[in-house]
């Protein structure tokens, strides 16, 4: 069918959820816990320079994603090629991750590292546009919330197991696969592990979901039509006040979440003196609580509504995050970090569900492109605000406090959104 709707099948739903298991390895290992820490502590000349350059790299990636994701979403609606585009971006993101193996612990490799991370992040984010747009066409309407939550929960479990594998790889004595003990080869090899994990576990979805017929439009015409569709869609949002307000609210609280993800491990290492192995252990523990939170709140999503779940999650993140900025004990930080993890998944999974419920069936790709846009469009602002506050107060705690501002602004606007019954 042209709207991409398929008859619900358990194996298709399971394959869709399992893709979250596959792609979660990239943000978990590369963007947050392992490679980001390695870059700031091992590649950059010093942690401050590393954090600054990493923030610039994430801002550039966010700019590309913000520009390209709505266009590619519109293209998918016209070519009917969501599965093909998803496969292409999955392969490209995996190749970029594998190439990070070549980044040695020397400042001369900083540019190479950032170019590869930017490329991989852009491909990862563009892939999620097509992945998210598949959900309303695969899931029964009454179960879309819990299926989205199950997928997000399975993603956290996948990230957990990938982190466990990375920790085993780093701690092995002697290093396996002929790796040398020096030159950070074991840490660098985790990027290859991510590539294999990502591409390999993505196969069930790529084989289980048939390609859409679409309009059969050529790629050049689709690009032209896609850009035109976005230009037409933006004015149309004035007639969709609920969607418009939700997207602006998400833009704000997603900026807080993105900044937290990008700098959380760096904050833990810099403020509490955690080394790479302890950061990985923290990541494993957070993924456990995050997976549980996403799975448990999935039922609340269908029962109480996506908006309520997002509000509770974002407000909880604010309270726990504020407490984390006040504690000085590593033990207290650990406890609060685990509690924080419970609300990571629901905030994101319920947002995806709400977009799926609000978007018109024939424009899902376009609206999920805007959804991705609001998740990354101003991603340079969060790192910039964090950097400015850190420098002004000479404190990482002050820098991380800016996250609370974005979360609070997004929650306040979302509070005013009234979701119509459909």
Topology, pairings included?
Layout: H1 10-23, H2 25-33, H3 35-43, H4 47-79, H5 82-99, H6 110-138, H7 144-171, H8 185-201, H9 203-208, H10 219-236, H11 241-272, H12 276-304, H13 306-326, H14 330-358, H15 364-376, H16 381-393, H17 396-415
Helix pairs in contact: 1-6, 1-7, 1-8, 2-7, 2-8, 3-4, 4-6, 4-10, 4-11, 4-15, 4-16, 5-6, 5-8, 6-15, 7-8, 7-12, 7-14, 11-14, 11-15, 11-16, 11-17, 12-13, 12-14, 13-14, 13-17, 16-17
Could you write a compact summary of the structure shown?
It contains 17 helices and no strands. The protein is mostly helical.
Structure in words:
With 422 residues, the chain is an all-alpha fold. The protein has one domain: MFS general substrate transporter like domains (Growth Hormone, Chain: A, Up-down Bundle), CATH 1.20.1250. Helices cover 80% and strands 0% of the residues. The longest helix is centred in the first third of the chain and has 33 residues. It is globular. The mean pLDDT is 82.
Structural class estimated from helices and strands: mainly alpha
Q: Total number of β-strand segments?
A: 0
Count the domains: 1
Q: Average the pLDDT over all residues and give the rounded result.
A: 82
Q: What is the rounded distance between the termini?
A: 21 Å
CATH class division: Mainly Alpha
CATH fold type: Growth Hormone, Chain: A
As a percent range, the share of helical residues equals: over 70%
Biggest sheet architecture: none
Low-confidence segments:
none
CATH structural architecture: Up-down Bundle
> Count of helices?
17
């Amino acid at each position: 069918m042209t709207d991409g709707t398929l008859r619900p099948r358990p194996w298709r739903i399971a394959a869709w959820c399992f893709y979250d298991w596959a792609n979660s390895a990239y943000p978990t290992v590369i963007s947050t816990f392992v490679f980001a820490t390695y870059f700031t502590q091992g590649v950059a000349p010093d942690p401050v320079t590393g954090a600054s350059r990493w923030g610039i790299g994430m801002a550039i990636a966010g700019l590309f994603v913000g520009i390209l994701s709505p266009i590619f979403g519109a293209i998918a609606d016209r070519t009917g090629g969501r599965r093909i585009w998803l496969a292409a971006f999955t392969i490209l993101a995996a190749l970029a991750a594998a190439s990070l193996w070549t980044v040695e612990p020397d400042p001369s490799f900083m540019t190479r590292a950032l170019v590869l991370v930017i490329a991989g992040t852009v491909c990862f984010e563009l892939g999620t546009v097509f992945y998210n747009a598949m959900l309303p066409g695969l899931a029964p309407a009454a179960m879309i919330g819990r299926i989205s939550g199950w997928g997000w929960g399975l993603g956290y479990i996948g990230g957990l197991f990938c982190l466990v594998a990375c920790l085993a790889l780093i701690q092995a004595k002697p290093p396996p696969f002929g790796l040398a003990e020096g030159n950070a080869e074991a840490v660098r090899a985790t990027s290859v592990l991510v590539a294999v994990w990502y591409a390999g576990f993505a196969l069930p979805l790529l084989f289980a979901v048939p390609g859409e017929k679409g309009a059969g439009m050529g790629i050049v015409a689709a690009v032209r039509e896609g850009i035109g569709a976005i230009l037409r869609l933006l004015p149309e949002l004035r007639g969709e006040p609920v969607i418009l307000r939700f997207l602006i609210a998400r833009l704000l609280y997603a900026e807080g979440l993105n900044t937290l993800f990008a700098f959380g491990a760096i904050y833990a290492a810099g403020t509490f003196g955690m080394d790479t192995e302890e950061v990985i252990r923290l990541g494993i523990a957070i993924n456990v609580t995050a997976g549980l939170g996403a799975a448990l709140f999935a039922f609340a999503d269908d029962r109480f509504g996506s908006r309520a779940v997002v509000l509770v999650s974002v407000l909880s993140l604010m309270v726990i995050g504020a407490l984390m900025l006040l504690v000085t004990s590593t033990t207290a930080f650990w406890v609060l970090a685990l509690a924080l993890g419970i609300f990571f998944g629901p905030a994101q999974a319920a947002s995806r569900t709400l977009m799926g419920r609000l978007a018109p069936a024939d424009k899902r790709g376009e609206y999920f492109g805007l959804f991705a846009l609001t998740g990354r469009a101003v991603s340079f602002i969060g790192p910039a605000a964090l950097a400015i506050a850190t420098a002004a107060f000479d404190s990482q705690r002050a820098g991380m406090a800016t996250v609370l501002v974005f979360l609070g602004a997004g929650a306040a606007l979302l509070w005013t959104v009234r979701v119509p019954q459909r």
